[in-house]
C-alpha cells in the first residue's frame, strides 16, 4: 500500500526538474485529463524495475522571502522528513559548490540513505570529473546527464537498493482509510476533532510504523473501523516550511495516495479558490472516492435557495467531480458531521462494487439500442464485450473493433448509463477501450 518516497535535493539549476521528469517519464494515464489540472510537478508516481515509488522534487517548494541558502536547507529538511531515500543532485559544470557543502552534512547526519548524483556529465570526458564529489562524504558519485538521459539506470539501481524492506500499512481490509483535504483554515482539524469526538474510541495513535503514527484510528459505536490519514499533517506543527502552499499541497497529495476516500473541504465563508481545484483534481485522477464537504455552513446567511445555489456553484467549478456527493456541515455546531462516517463507508462500498459481466453487457446493449454507436469516416464503432477488470476505482474494459472510434462523448454517455444503473456515487469510474484481437 505505502510506496517508498524518494526526494531530489540540490541547489537551483543543477537539473532537478529535468531529472524528475526523466524518472517519472511520460507515464500515460488511462484516465482522460478532464479535470484540466495543470500539475505542478513536485510530486509524482514513478517506477524502476517493477518497483513503484513516489518522487518529490523539493526544488519546487520555494519560500520566496528567504535567502537562497536557507531555502536549500529547508528543502533538504523536507527531504529528510518525508523521504525514504534522498537523491542529492550536483552538477559537473560548477563542481562542488558552497551550497552543496551546506546540504551534504545535513543529509549525512540525518542517517537517511543518500545517493549522490552528478548531473550534466554529458560526455565521457566530463564523467572523469565526478570523482571530485567524493569530497562531499556521501559515497560514490553517480555521473548522469538529464538532458541526454545517461546514467539514470545505475542511479535508480542504487536508489531502489536502499528502499526499506517493509513499508506495509498495518491496516486490515476492513479499515476504511480517509483523508481530509483543503486549504489552510477551511476547518480540517476542527472536522477531524469533531469526528473523533468523545463518543468514539481512539484505537491507537502511536503503535506500528512511523507512518501510522501520523494517522488517527477510531471505531464507531457499531464497530466500524476507520483511519484518518495524516492527522499529524492536519494539526499544526510549527516548522518553517509547513506554512508554504506547496508543502501543504505535497502533504495532501501524499495523504490522498494512502486513502480510500478523500474528504475535499471547502470553506463556505470564503467560497471556492484555485488551490482547491488542484488537490481535488489530484484525488480525482488518483481514482479515489470523493466527498465534497462544504464547511462553516453556520456562517452563511440563508435564504430560500442559498444551499441550492451554492451546490450549483460547486458543480460548475468542479465539473469533473459530478459524481461526488456534497455535504454541508459545520464543525463548530457539529451540524451533519455525524453523517460523515456513513457517507464515507457508502462511498468506499461503491468504489468496491463488482458487476457481473452478464449484467454489464445487458446494460451496454440497452445503451447502444437507445443511442447508436458513433461512426467516423464511414466506420462504425462496434462493441463486442464489456468486463470489469478492477475496483477502487471500478474499471471497465470495452472490447471494440477500433478503440479510436470510442470518442469521449460516447464514453461519457456509457459512463452515465453505468451510473444510472449502479450506485457509483462518490467514485470515479474508468472505461478503457481495447481492440478485440
Ligand atoms: P533545477 O532548477 O535544479 O530544477 O534545474 P532544471 O531541471 O530546471 O535545469 C536547469 C538547466 O540545466 C536547464 O537549462 C536544463 O536544460 C539544464 N540541464 C539539466 N540537465 C542537464 C544535463 O544533463 N546536461 C546539460 N548540459 N544541461 C542540463
Ligand atoms: P484547518 O487549517 O483547515 O485545519 O482549519 P481549522 O480547523 O484550524 O479551522 C480554522 C478556523 O476556522 C478556526 O478558527 C476554527 O475555529 C474555524 N472553524 C472551523 N470550522 C468552522 C465552522 O464550521 N464554522 C465556523 N464558524 N468556524 C469554523
From TrEMBL:
PROSITE patterns linked to this entry: G_ENGA (PS51712)
Domain of life: Bacteria
Molecular function GO terms recorded: GTP binding; hydrolase activity; ribosome binding
Family annotation (InterPro entries): G_ENGA, GTP-bd, GTPase_Der, KH_dom-like, KH_dom-like_a/b, P-loop_NTPase, Small_GTP-bd
UniProtKB keywords: GTP-binding, Hydrolase, Nucleotide-binding, Repeat, Ribosome biogenesis
Family according to the record: Belongs to the TRAFAC class TrmE-Era-EngA-EngB-Septin-like GTPase superfamily. EngA (Der) GTPase family.
Protein name: GTPase Der
